[in-house]
Design goal:
6 helices; 4-stranded antiparallel sheet; alpha+beta
């Protein structure tokens, strides 16, 4: 007798809300009541950070790169057609790390209302091979860092999770918006090794915690610490007015933790 075709239905894809609930549960379970305080993390930074964020740009470039590394920074953008966020445009500006540090001793980092971005992995030349001189993965010369981000979860869970991860995190920074960014040291020597490393970390090990799987390419931009932003910034309370109402300001892109030589398998807290 011929077997009957199965009437079993394939499981439905989880909704975005369902995914967030699952990621939240996984993170809360791992944390087991642990909560990281931003000020405590800032105090624990092996590289001493100043109260204001203005010097964070120079600190990130100086401590995370060699003097001859070419660093691409961009503050040009256009609003997205749907009005939600911006698209980075143009090739940006590329200088060596030493040139950027020299510039920053005299002038502040340029930025616009949406802030500023950098490619945290050094590029091969001052002009990229992409459209209008932009940079692609083929233009990356040293594969130093992976970007970890979980912008679907509350900020306090993000920070606590990153502080408990047994990862070689070189920098934790506040995007000024809805996420913290963690730069994780890479041990790759080639593009293929970097991609394999990224796939293992983001698609296998950390996928269940909601770490963004789109951050696999080495030429990806991340938020440059040390500048303010207005577009997409969250509000923070800095005091109160004479009338007793909360005084709010926009959060800035800033470093919370900087460790250029992190241990391979040790958590920050």
């Amino acid at each position: 007798m011929a077997s009957q075709p199965s009437t079993r239905q394939k499981p439905k894809e989880p909704t975005e809300e369902g995914k967030v609930k699952r990621w939240t549960h996984a993170v809360v379970t791992i944390l087991n009541g642990f909560k990281a305080d931003p000020y405590e993390v800032w105090e624990l930074s092996p590289i001493r950070l100043l109260e204001g964020c203005e010097t964070d740009v120079r600190a990130a470039i100086y401590w995370l790169h060699d003097p001859d590394d070419l660093i691409n920074i961009n503050f040009d953008y256009r609003p997205k057609p749907d009005g939600k966020g911006v698209d980075i445009v143009g090739p940006g500006i590329t200088l060596s790390a030493s040139e950027w540090c020299e510039y920053l001793t005299e002038y502040p980092m340029p930025f616009r209302e949406a802030g500023c971005w950098w490619r945290h992995n050094p590029v091969r030349s001052r002009q990229g091979s992409g459209k209008d001189g932009s940079f692609t993965d083929a233009d990356i010369v040293r594969f130093r860092y992976h970007l970890f981000e979980i912008d679907k979860l509350p900020l306090e869970l993000q920070l606590s999770f990153f502080c408990k991860c047994r990862l070689p995190i070189v920098m934790l920074s506040d995007s000024g918006g809805k996420s913290y960014h963690a730069l994780v040291k890479s041990y790759a020597r080639t593009l293929e090794e970097f991609q394999a490393e990224a796939e293992y970390l983001l698609d296998e090990v950390f996928a269940r915690f909601g770490v963004d799987p789109k951050n696999k390419n080495p030429s990806r931009y991340s938020r440059l610490p040390g500048v303010p932003r207005k577009i997409g910034a969250r509000k923070v309370i800095t005091g109160s007015t004479r009338q007793g109402d909360p005084r709010e300001t926009n959060a800035a892109q800033r470093i919370l933790y900087l460790n250029p030589n992190p241990p391979k398998q040790k958590a920050i807290l």
